[in-house]
Structures are given as structure tokens and as C-alpha cells.
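Lecture notes, unit on binding sites. The following record was shown on slide 14. It pairs a sequence with zinc ion.
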Amino acid sequence: MQQKKRKKEKRRDKHEETTNDFLADNNTDVNFESYPAATLRDGLRKSCHPTVPHMLNVHLVPHTHDDVGWLKTVDQYYYGGRNNIQHAGVQYILDSVVEQLLQNPERRFIYVETAFFYRWWRNQRPSMQTTVRQLVDQGRLEFVNGGWCMSDEATTHYSAVIDQMTLGLRFLNDTFGRCGRPRVAWHIDPFGHAREHASMFAQMGYDGFFFGRLDYQDRSHRMAKRNQELLWRASESLEPPHADLFTGILPNGYNPPDGFCWDQSCDDPPIMDDPDLEDYNVDDVVRRFKMIANAQAKVYKTQHLIMTMGSDFQYENANLWYKNLDKLIRYVNAQQANGSRLNVLYSTPSCYLQELHRANLTWALKTDDFFPYADNAHNFWTGYFSSRPALKRYERVSNGRLQTCNQLEVLGGPSSRKGPFGAGDSETLRKAMGVAQHHDAVSGTEKQHVANDYARMLAKGWQRCQVVVSNSLAALSGSSAGRVYCDNLNISACPLTEASKEFSVNVYNPLARPVVWPVRLPVNGSAYGVRDAGGAPLACQVSVVPVSEATRQVRKDRGHAVNELVFLVQAPPLGYSTYSVSRLQNGPPPASATPGPPAAIQNQFVRATFDPATGLLASLTNLETQQTINLTQNFYWYNASDGNSSVSDQPSGAYIFRPNSSTPFTISSSAKTQSIQTPELQEVRQRFGPWVSQVVRLHSNSKALELEWTVGPVPIEDSLGKEVFTRLDSSIRSSGIFYTDSNGREVLRRKKDFRPTWDLKQTEPIAGNYFPINSRAFIKDDKDQLTVVTDRSQGGSSIQDGSLEIMLHRRLLYDDVRGVGEPLNETSGVFPQGLVVRGRLLLSLAPPPLAADAHRPLAQENVLPPLLTFTKGGPPPGALLEVCFSGLQAALPPAVHLLSLSRWDDDSLLLRLEHQYQTQESKQHSGPVTVHLQKLFSTLEVVGVSEMNLSANQWLDEMKRLDWRPTTGGRPLKKPLGDPSVWEVTLTPMQIRTFVLRVARRR
Ligand SMILES: [Zn+2]
């Protein structure tokens, strides 16, 4: 298809046209794009090779799978460094493929990972860029998926996934325009598939989705019923077809059929076609290919088959592949003259998808997800849900920091990027987060040196963002006093607060509603006075408590505070407040710890009781609703299989969870306890042994009970790998049912030893019941719902009625033979004896109809916690505005979450508003809600608006997807709720709406 103008120019045209005259009908925009959608589809068809009716058409899809880090770092993979670990160099792949595409216009190639393509593109001369643009325009080089990486689906949070897709797709849009927009989502390698990913892909405008891995039992059932291509209805809240996604399961993972791998890394025989030669093998090749195609046709529905001709880092010498594929096509098709009904062609996933659509069939409907994934009876890929818990937490923390950085970059204006603290940017962290979403990054399935590299990139990105934050806060507050960041508050280390007699704390709240938040700072004084933004002493009391023994152990010599100063702060929506802290000479002594468990800790909302004999939790009460459950909690470990068993030789590893026995070891049946009670804070410090401790904590305003766990170094002197988990055992009658979220959003119902779409033969009673938990899990009965909100992605399950277990840490001694080639045995410079990991679980008890009202905001507060920055000395002089600011005119309604606010270009920003409740989840909040865009910001005037698709690479009104019909369960599309006006946008449950707003600064 011919491209008339580059998209970058068109985007500006469109943008200016729309925003200068924002009420104008987009269709009158003559500069933008003169092809209506229908013609575009025709154009797409022209770039697809014709197929032959009444024949079996085999679509050969040349492709490479380029992991954005795994056995090597992303840099090593790009350049081909460390080829002793794995021979792989992405720059050579792209060089070679382009050269080979130019040799024969029939050839096709798809490219997936924009993090790599972006690097390669920037290194090309203008003439090569022109050539590549032509290949893209002609459909010979096609982008599929197109995100910065191919994200993991089990351990990623939707907010970070949307960001990384937006990043990659924007590059493709800006560089290649409409012909560079991927039509197909392509997750050939992730280890199981999340429903929320399918929902997001649908809302990003993809026509279909292909993947390679699913449970082996599921696959065999689907093959028998020819249901390997299906329609995934991926939301219970969004009206069909908004979250409907056509989904295809590839026939051979993502590899070529056996005997047909012609990469330099493969050993299959090439096509030897000189009949004079002894090794002539064309007849044999054609015969084998026919057999494979006929077998494949028996398990798919249409006259079209797809074959993935490529694999990991293949096509570095693309000539080998293409020379043989050219011949394969020629010789197989030559048989048609002899009556063969087989037709082979170069193709792409979108060309294949188009033929499936043309077939005009109905497709089996699926409404659950593809977790967990087992490749055989004892090989469940449920370990990576929890592998590398410290990296998983760091990724989650980094997401919150990126959102904060994005917001402050917008609110502080141009001087945020270049100001009194120098030049900063959000791009470095955005790209690092994009890379971290990869299915061997946050998943924890990479080699140790690669995990270190991901963390290094996130840290570097945060440094660049700190400059943005400091500049922005200087612009907003008028004070350019130097700001200090304390990133180790979780281990009670912060040199400034430890040493200073007087300092101030700026609390920036990235949520669109006010928050009250407990601040906990390491100090060396015993009494402190705290004043709020108005200069008044805090109404509520300030607590000073001793640093716990567990914290001293984990922080080592990285801090020297003896006490912790705890007080509640309030911060306005999308804004900050400032508190000044000064050490008092004659204050009350710090609180002291009392040995033994208290009978109970409680505030006005929650009461938790303890068993005096064991020191463990005994019950939990919601004092507002007057409901109580019995609740005990303890720590356990499963002995990881070492592969030495008559049943199976599969060991537990980075990917695979396989306990040796379903009966766990208890770390200690009782805890040594201490308690601390002040008017503002009550905590019970439990020690379960030298490597497990916990604090059970309630602040005066908490509606949830906090469990702060510390696990490690996990001992391995006994040569036993350990899978450490905590288990909550309650009186809730859960009847084998539990619930887990999908990528932090919609919740799925799970049933022990059960799969909704096939008759499960359960072969691993523990590992086969584990599911990913991204931000919450719960169990319930008619009366009580116990929800656990997590601070990172973890695996979990409910093995017994009334219980919920969550995997916290894994330390393993064997590789699980899935490629990574290392046991998951994390140590570091600070922790040579094994990594120590600390985290928090928040427990909320409520009647089921009220539970979401608590856990939805609680989870958002955990994903986007306030950012604390510190300045030395007394409070900054001046007016109230300088110590207190809100970027919003008013808080958004409780159902609305401000998902994205980031700089788009010089005069516009990207805004995503999200309805954070599911339908029928909340009596109060599960209805439509309207937001007025012009009444949103306090310092920005919104002068233009364009609504985009979810990934912001298409105008929403131009997003037209292929329509697919389910065999059953189709519902007519209800007329969507209209917006009251251009400026007033209505959100329905679980809806996310994406806007590019042109803004001018007020004042
Ligand atoms: Zn991969």
C-alpha cells in the first residue's frame, strides 16, 4: 500500500486541526488520511499474497523471537555480545532480513520487539530508512504486537503494560504511519495468558491475537474439537465486543515444523534440488511437508494453516532461511500441476487472520484465562509467579515512581525537564520500565546478571526522574532548596532524617483523591514535633518507636537510626503538602516494647486478637460492620523437588514450582512476640526464627490490617530448596473457591482442581492450583470476605477451605531445564548468605457486597503511594501555596482512577481516566460516572481534546476492528452511553478512556 505522507506530519496536522478547532468533525480533516477504513482493508489485502480457493493454503510466517533480555542483557542481545552464553545478535538479524527481503519481493517478515527495532533504526542511514519504509508500506516487512517488549502476562500490572505498549506503538506510528500499525497481538512465548491482557489488546485495536503456550491438556482437548482458534470475551464488565479478541493458538509453539528449520543454528537438511546429485531430496521434502500440513489441517477449522518459520534469535543469516523457503514454495506448489491440493505462500499473521475472517465461521467462546500453564503432568509453570520477589517489588515501586514523574513533568511545566537541578527526563525510566515488562524480566526467569541489569536500568531511570521531580517541585513551590530522596525507608535508612535536628518532608500524592498516609522515618532523637503545611502542630499524636531487631538485621550498616518517627500525613489530590519536623529537647520518652503478645490490637475500624500461647493471630474483626472471623496466620515452606523422584525428574526452578510433598514444613509453631502500643500506632513484632519475622500493624486510621513480613536469607545448608509462603487460615466457608485478579484489574473466580473449559486431570495438587496474584486475592462466603492486597506480583492458592496462601520467597538449588540454566538462588553483595526480602500484605474483612469499596482504593494506594522528598532545615518561608498544592480543581469521584497523566508533546498531554470498579461489584460505585475535562486541572486549561484508543496510536473514532461471531453466548451490542458533551466524559465500570489534551497554563 502506498503511503501518502508520514504519520508524524499527519499526527501534527490532525492534532492541530483537532485542537485548534476541537469541535470540528474529524471526518472533514482532509490533511489527515484520505483512506477510509474499508479501503485500507482492501489495501491490506493487496499486500497479502493471493490464496487459492478449495485448496489447503499454508501461510509461512518468517519470524524471529528476540527476548528483550534473558540469558544475556538487552544490550548484549542487540550487539551480539557474550556469544559464549548464547549466539544471538539482533542488529545482524535486522541487517540480514532487510537485505534478503530486497532480493525477492515475494518474501515477507514480521518484527515484534520495538525496544530492539528502535535501536536498529536509529543506527541506519537515511537511504536505508527510506528503503525500510518502502518495505513496510508494501507489507513486506510487517510489525506485529509492536510494544516495547512482549510482556509477561502473569506478573505484570496493567498500568505498566499499557505504558510499554504505548511507548512501542508510538514509535512505530511516528516512524511509519498507518502502515506501521500492528494489526495482530503476538505473545508466542509468555508462559500462560491473562484475560486482562486480552481485554487490553482488544481495546488497543488489534484484530486478533496469537500465542504458543497453553496447558497440554487444554491443547489436546482443543485439537480434538478443532477449537484452537476461538473468541476470547475478556471482560465481565465491558460490553461485547469491546473486550472480545479473536485468539489463535499456534500449531508448534512458535517453532517451524519438525525437519524444516533452516536457520544457521539448526541441523535440518537444506533443500538439495540438483537432480544430478546423490543427495537430491526435493521429493522427500515435499512428501514430509504434505504429511505435516495434512495432519495440521485435521486440528484446525479452515482451509488455511499458519506455520511459524523461525524461532529464538533466528535469521541472523537470513539467506539460509529464505533460500530454502523460496524453494519449498516453488516445489510444493509445482505439484498442483499433478493434482495436489496444497498451496504454500509467504504470509504474515494479519494476512492469515484475514483469511480466517473471510471464512465467515463462528468460533468457540472463552471467558476465563489460560493459567496455569503446564507442559506436562508434573511441570506447572507456576513458580515464576513468585520468582525474584525483590525484583518484582522493585518493578512495582518503579511503576509508581514513573507515574509520579510523569505527573510532575506535566504539572511543573517546561522547567521540569530543564531547571535549577539540571536536565532530567521521564523517558529513561519509561524505557527501563518497558524493558522490565518483558516475559523474562519481571517474571524472574532471567539469569542473575540480567536481573541485575534490569534493576540497574530502573535505578538509572529513577535518577533522571529525580531531577524532573526536584525541578517540578521547585517550580510549583517557588523554593529551590535541594531535595533529598530516601529510597531505603523500608529498612529504616535515611541519612538526612537520621542526622538532622530539623527537616521538612514534602508528601506528593499521585492519586486523584486525597490520602492520609503513615510516614515512618528513621531518627536518632527520642521526641519530635511535627507541624503541618499551615504551620500548626499536628492534631494527632506523633509516635517514636524503637527500630526493631529484624530491621537492624536487614539494614546492616546501611543506616544507624535507633528510633522510628511515625505520624500520619494528608496530601491533596495530585498534589503535595509539606510537614516540618524538629527534634525536641524535653519530649516524652519513645514508646517501649512490651514482651509477649497483647490480647488484641485495635482502632476504631479493626480489631485483631492474638493467641497468648503461640503469639499468632487468632481473629480479625471489622468493628464498623460488626463481623468477626477466626484467623490464624503462619509461615511455611514446601520442600522444592530436586528432580530425584520416580514420578518425574522435574525439579523446581525459576519457571516451575514442584513441591516434593504437598505437606509443608512449619517454620515455627509459635512466634516470639513484642508489642508496641501508642495512641497512633499499634504493632506486634513476631519472630518466627532467625530468617522469618513479621510486624502486625494498625495505624489509627487503618481500615486494613498490615502484615509486614521479612524473609531470608533462606537457609540451604540442609541442601533442600525452599518455597516459602504464608498461609491465612480462617473460618470462612469458601468451598474450594477463591478469587485472584488479572494484571491488577478484573477479578477471576478460581476453583480448586478445576478448569472452566475442560475436565481437568489434576496431577500436582499444590502447584496445579497456583494462580498469579498481581494486587489482590480473596475468599468469601455469604457473610464474610477476606481480601489480601499485595505489594507485588506473587503466586497463591487456596488449598483448604477457608485458607489462602501466598508464596513470598523461593530459594532453589537446581535448574528447571527450561533454558535459563541457573538455579534460582539469589545472593548479592549486601546479602552473600542469600537475599532478604521484605513486603506487606494488607488484610481487609468486609461483607462481600462492600468488599470492593475497600480493596479497590487500597490497591491503588499501594500501586501509587505518596512520594516523600526531604529538605534540610526549617519550613520554607512563605505563603501556604508554597507548602501545599493540588493539580486538580477537586478530587475525582471515588469510582474514577487517574491512570495516566504524562507529557505527550510541547503543548499536549496524555490522560487516561479509568472506572476502577467492576459491574455489580459495588452497590455504591458500580454505576456510570461523568468527569468534566475542563474542570479537571487547577493550573492547566484544557483547550483541545482528541479521544484515542487505549494505546494512543489511533483516533478512537477510526478504530475499526474485524468482527468475529461466537458459536454461543453472543449478546447484542447495547447502545453505549453517550457523553453529555464533548467535555463531559462518562465512564462505565472497568472502562478506561484515553485522551490527548491540548493544554495552556493558567495564571
Ligand atoms: Zn521469549
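Take-home: The CA atoms of residues 644 and 651 lie 8 Å apart.
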